[in-house]
Amino acid sequence: MARINDHYLKLKAGYLFPEIARRVNAFAQAHPEAKLIKLGIGDVTEPLPAAVIEAMHKAIDEMAKRDTFRGYGPEQGHAFLREKIVGHDYHAHGCEIAADEVFVSDGSKCDTANILDVLGPGNVVAVVDPVYPVYVDTNVMAGHTGPANDRGEYTGLVYLPATAENGFSPELPSQKVDVIYLCYPNNPTGAVATKETLAKWVGYAKANDALILFDAAYEAFITDTVIPHSIYEIDGARDVAIEFRSFSKNAGFTGTRCAFTVVPRSVAGTDAQGNRVDVHRLWSRRQTTKFNGVSYVVQRGAEAVYSDAGQQQVRELVEFYMANAKIIRETLTSLGYEIYGGVNGPYIWLKTPGAMTSWAFFDKLLADAHVVGTPGSGFGAAGEGYFRISAFNSRANVQEAMLRIREKMGAERL
Ligand SMILES: *Cc1c(COP(=O)(O)O)cnc(C)c1O
Question: How confident is the model at residue 413, as a pLDDT?
Answer without folding.
Answer: 59
